[in-house]
Amino acid sequence: MKAPVLLLLLAALPLSAWGDKGHRIVCTLALKGLPPEVQAWYAGHEAEVEDHASDPDHWRQDRKEGPRHFLDMEPYGGPDQLPRTLEQAQARLGGDFYRRGVVPWIIQDRWRDLVDAFRARDAARVALATSILSHYVADAHVPLHTTENHDGQATNQRGVHSRWETGLVERFVLREEMRALPAAADPRILERPWDWLRSSHALVPQLLEDDRAADRTTPVDGHGRAARSQAYWMIFWAKQGPTVQGQLQQAGKHLGDAVITAWVAAGRPEGPTPLPVIH
Ligand SMILES: [Zn+2]
Fold first, then answer.
1. Is 270 part of a structural domain of the chain?
2. Per-residue pLDDT of the chain (279 residues; tens, 9 = 90+)
3. Separation of 118 CA from ligand 1 center, angstroms?
4. How far is the CA of 150 from the centre of ligand 1 (A)?
5. What's the 188 CA to ligand 1 centre distance in angstroms?
6. How many A from CA of 67 to the centre of ligand 1?
7. How many structural domains comprise the chain?
8. Does 117 fall in a domain?
9. How far does the centroid of ligand 1 lie from the alpha carbon of residue 69, in Å?
């Protein structure tokens, strides 16, 4: 009984961006980049922010959840033709629009939740809202979350999605070497998700090319499946490592920008007084 259930679960595993490690790194970088008066809101809640950053990937049994993590650009004619509102998206694609992804609008919604949490002066709520927002901001920085060819299926590169966002991150990214960029308030924060997605999308062709180049070293196992060698991973990392690290760093910076801007929108509330430590 157990094995078939496990197989079913594995078969149903969603494409989860960044994996848990990447999502945690984005949160850490964002909190580090905050000015002290905003950082004060997270004192004692840092672990919670990280711990819930992958939660939205576990909500996908709800069929509406999947498309909240990406936006396919091709159905709209590419990065310069994207709709700004859900109404525009629907007008362009009809009933198909939702399944093509809605991540920029979800980022807007989750950012408003964070503003509400700051307004409520509720540090636990601030931490959770930040965590959930972080997930979608981080996903928007994954190049393969902006394209129909999200798993290399159109270019005979199946699996490239997890090789890039999980395989490389798990194997090579060193948390302690990641540097946080200082965050700043951004009055146009609600428009930024489109900029982030366009920047991500511009990285797609090179990413796919580098995977193909690394794959030329890849032996094929007896079952006809490609088993990636250590050489594959070394080459793919040498080519894409700076991009992986850069996108994690940018996601952290942009999450920090979103946090400060939410705090400003809520009237710059003073952080809660820390509870006295009992020894
Ligand atoms: Zn996701």
1. no
2. 344 444 444 444 445 678 899 999 999 999 999 999 999 999 999 999 999 999 999 998 888 999 999 999 999 999 999 999 999 999 999 999 999 999 999 999 999 999 999 999 999 999 999 999 999 999 999 999 999 999 999 999 999 999 999 999 999 999 999 999 999 999 999 999 999 999 999 999 999 999 999 988 766 655 555 678 889 999 999 999 999 999 999 999 999 999 999 999 999 999 886 655 666
3. 24
4. 13
5. 24
6. 9
7. 1
8. yes
9. 5
The amino acid at 257: D
- Ligand 1 centroid to Cα of residue 55, in Å, is 9
Question: How far away, in angstroms, is 105 Cα from ligand 1 center?
Answer: 14
Contact 260, 184 (CB under 8 A): yes
CA–CA gap between residue 180 and residue 17 (Å, rounded)? 20
CA of 277 to the centre of ligand 1 (A): 36
**Domain of residue 127, CATH code:** 1.10.575.10
Q: Ligand 1 centroid to 278 CA: how many Å?
A: 39
Assess contact for 260 and 31: CB atoms under 8 A: no
Is residue 97 in a domain?
Answer: yes
Residue 8 CA, ligand 1 centroid: distance in Å = 20
What distance in angstroms lies between residue 16's CA and the mean position of ligand 1's atoms?
A: 5
Distant-in-sequence, close-in-space partners of 234: CB < 8 Å, separation ≥ 6? none
How many Å lie between the centroid of ligand 1 and the Cα of residue 207? 19
Rg (CA), the chain: 20
pTM, whole model, 2 decimals?
A: 0.91
Does residue 275 sit within a domain? no
CA of 119 to the centre of ligand 1 (A): 27
Residue 174 CA, chain-centre distance (Å), reads 18
**192: containing domain:** 16-154+179-201+244-265
Neighbours of 16 (CB within 10 A): 21
The letter for the amino acid at 250 is Q
